[in-house]
Specification:
The chain is α/β, with parallel strands linked by helices and 265 residues long. The protein has two domains: 204 residues, 2-enoyl-CoA Hydratase, Chain A, domain 1 (Alpha-Beta Complex); 47 residues. Helices cover 47% and strands 16% of the residues. The strands form two sheets. The protein has a seven-stranded mixed sheet, sandwiched between helices. Helix 1 runs parallel beside helix 2, helix 4 crosses helix 5 and helix 8 runs antiparallel to helix 9. The mean pLDDT is 96.
Length: 265
Amino acid sequence: MRTDFERVYVEGHGSAALLALNHPEVVNAISAPMIDGLMRALDFLERSGFRAVVVTGEGRGFCSGANLAEGLAEGATDVASSIAIRMDRGYHPLLRRLRDFPSPIITAVNGAAVGIGLSIALMGDLVVAARSAYFQHSFVRIGLVPDGGSTWLLPRLIGLARARELSMLGEKLDADRALEWGLINRVCDDDKLIGEALTLAVRLAEGPSMALAAMRRMYWQSPQTGYEQQLELERENQVQVGGSEDAIEGIRAFLEKRRAAFKGQ
């Protein structure tokens, strides 16, 4: 069953869901209406109880970056103020919402993931790319700097030297090389992309939801903490999750040498 939002739609696949950017005429360029649609769709997904989400793009690409034809943001007097408004009111709240989403996110990257589209692609806990996909920091071509949290993410994923190269040269990074660099998790044939991503999503949706949510939080926090702090964070989360029904079931199933039947509780 499909539910439509502004330039976005959601399809349910059992306990997993597909969230698609849906403005293929501009290769799903990010705009204020699309961000509004995404925020509403994420609220809908959380309310509906889906336990894993695949994010992809409708048509021939994942996301071509910001929609530069959108004009100045409401309340802006020039390009600089428009950029500030769009980041403060749009991009940053969306990225924080994706970071804090309680369920695992898989990004299925079809075609181009450019600019802010690259940042959204990297918000996935697992990133699966079609063989024809590519990643590009095109900011240098229009005289701007990288945004979308990419100057924080990229050095941690691929190292400082490769991050600088990607940003300063603005060249395309194809899927196979992105996998080699450690930017993404898997590459598959174009016609198998959504099937592969949904298979992973269903697998995660059948897992222990509280533990997976805690894993998301811990990995997002880990680059900002020291070793001792991270040990304490692991302890706190282990204690919290250890009392869940899924943890009790998981331990019982292990001892009984059977597969655990997690309920997301």
